[in-house]
């Protein structure tokens, strides 16, 4: 797949984001997307070929690999990147809708099509909630699938058609665990940024509404 599409999407959203949102985009692009493309993808490149069990029983090695790695970590990471970035499309679509509406009416309907206010504010808040929710779901998924973010050196397998409990060895377990911890850490930072931006926008909008209401009462 071409990761250029995801890069272009994040670059487009950058124009309509707050300062905190731009930090989130920078972390996703530099510390997640680039790390995935440049380094992490190669670590898991031959994970199935390098998974070894101390038996020659046909099918045993494949069954054990599927049992301990029901979903490839690197593919799950790629899926996480795509799904977490997708809610940003809501903001881009909403801005495009505003611009198209102004063209149809041939007049200025908004102070700025990309200004976060009114309906666009709601869309932006929804995108932040979805991104945070997806991040948490994937962290829980990683935790459940890989037994607490661990990549063991040795796993014991007694799945059929293995003749008995066999020892299986995972390739580059330390390196994989480092990348898994890095993935968890960057996800945690992104969750904190999303929650901070959500709180900031709600606080800012609340202050704005309170100030407007107070001014009307004074008048």
Automatic annotation (TrEMBL):
Keyword terms: Cell junction, Cell membrane, Gap junction, Membrane, Transmembrane, Transmembrane helix
GO CC, one annotated term: connexin complex
Any one GO molecular-function label of the UniProt entry: gap junction channel activity
Xref: InterPro entries: Connexin, Connexin_CCC, Connexin_CS, Connexin_N, Connexin_N_sf
Superkingdom of this protein's organism: Eukaryota
Keyword Protein biosynthesis among record annotations: no
Domain Connexin cysteine-rich residues, every copy: 134-201
Gene3D superfamilies xref list: Gap junction channel protein cysteine-rich domain
Pfam families reported for this sequence: Connexin (PF00029)
Location, primary (coarse class): other
GO biological process: cell-cell signaling
Transmembrane regions listed in the UniProt entry: 21-39, 77-97, 118-143, 178-203
Protein's cellular compartments: Cell junction, Gap junction; Cell membrane
UniProt membrane topology term: Multi-pass membrane protein
Domain spans labelled Connexin N-terminal: 42-75
Subunit comment: A connexon is composed of a hexamer of connexins.
Function in brief: One gap junction consists of a cluster of closely packed pairs of transmembrane channels, the connexons, through which materials of low MW diffuse from one cell to a neighboring cell.
Homology family: Belongs to the connexin family.
Designated name of the protein: Gap junction protein
Organism: Crypturellus undulatus
């Amino acid at each position: 797949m071409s990761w250029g599409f995801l890069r272009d999407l994040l670059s487009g959203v950058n124009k309509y984001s707050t300062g905190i949102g731009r930090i989130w985009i920078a972390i996703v692009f530099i510390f997640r997307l680039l790390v995935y493309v440049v380094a992490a993808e190669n670590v898991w490149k031959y994970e199935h070929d390098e998974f070894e069990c101390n038996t020659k029983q046909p099918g045993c090695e494949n069954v054990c690999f599927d049992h301990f790695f029901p979903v490839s970590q690197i593919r799950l990471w790629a899926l996480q990147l795509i799904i977490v970035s997708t809610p940003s499309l809501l903001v881009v679509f909403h801005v495009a809708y505003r611009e198209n509406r102004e063209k149809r009416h041939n007049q200025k309907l908004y102070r700025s099509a990309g200004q976060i206010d009114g309906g666009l504010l709601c869309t932006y808040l929804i995108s932040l909630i979805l991104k945070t929710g997806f991040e948490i779901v994937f962290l829980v998924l990683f935790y459940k699938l890989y037994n607490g973010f661990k990549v063991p050196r040795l796993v014991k397998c007694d799945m059929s058609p293995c003749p008995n409990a066999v020892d299986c060895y995972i390739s580059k377990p330390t390196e994989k665990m480092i990348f898994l911890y890095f993935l968890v850490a960057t996800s945690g930072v992104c969750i904190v940024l999303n929650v901070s931006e959500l709180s900031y926008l709600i606080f800012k909008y609340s202050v704005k509404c309170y100030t407007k209401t107070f001014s009307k009462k004074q008048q």
